[in-house]
Design a protein that fits this description.
The protein is 43% helix and 20% strand. With 203 residues, the protein is of the alpha/beta class. The strands form two sheets. A six-stranded mixed beta sheet has the order 1-2-3-5-7-10, with helices on both faces. The protein has a four-stranded mixed beta sheet with strand order 4-6-8-9. Strand 1 and strand 2 form a beta hairpin.
Length: 203
């Protein structure tokens, strides 16, 4: 349910459970953690999903069984944030719930026009993972973060772009091509230079 392709120093990681809106099980989450922890040698990592939804977050059954409060979410977002190469969330559709953390941890987020963004953690009776509000507020500010996390608002692509939650809107048939094109200069560069520029961009 997780596909990994490695080509030209780019690792493409695809959530592949489209019949369940790419909702994440514990096994999927653990596999994602392991992949990202092995990806230090990749010059770029693209994270995307199969089908029309990037991810609905945690599988509801698994969430009720304890996945919603698992430390695997923080392990995953931390592993992505620590990668020295360029990381891109190529959002092929809606991004919801706990899956938001992995996209927030990426350097760049691009999305298709039909995507929606929501994180109904309070409605479901859980706290978000600790790093998620921090990263979201760094991108869009505290008030807009509360609009999503406390106000329960669904944000459409145009508004997400205006907020700064995503960086570019891309037609579905050009999503992966665009992601790879953004990676091109980083992949071609001296890895030490790319890593140094990324460090200089850190808040």
């Amino acid at each position: 349910m997780i596909r990994l392709a490695q080509e030209d120093h780019i690792w493409t990681v695809t959530l592949d459970r489209p019949d369940k809106a790419n909702a994440l099980t514990e096994d999927m989450l653990r596999e994602l953690c392991e992949i990202m922890e092995r990806a230090e040698g990749a010059r770029a990592v693209i994270l995307t999903g199969e089908g029309r939804i990037f991810s609905a977050g945690a599988d509801l059954e698994a969430a009720r069984a304890g996945l919603a409060v698992s430390d695997l979410w923080e392990r995953l977002s931390g592993a992505i944030a620590c990668l020295p190469g360029l990381t891109i969330a190529a959002l092929n559709g809606t991004l919801a719930g706990g899956a938001t953390g992995m996209a927030l941890a990426c350097d760049i987020r691009i999305a298709v026009p039909e995507a929606k963004f929501f994180y109904p953690v309070m409605k479901l009776g859980f706290l978000p993972q600790p790093s998620d509000p921090v990263r979201m507020a760094a991108l869009i500010g505290p008030a807009r973060t509360k609009l999503i996390l406390m106000g329960g608002q669904k944000i459409l692509t145009e508004e997400a772009l205006a907020f700064g939650l995503i960086d570019r809107v891309v037609a579905p048939d050009a999503l992966m091509q665009t992601a790879r094109a953004i990676c091109a200069d980083t992949v071609a560069a001296d890895p030490k230079i790319a890593k140094g520029i990324k460090a200089l961009c850190a808040p």
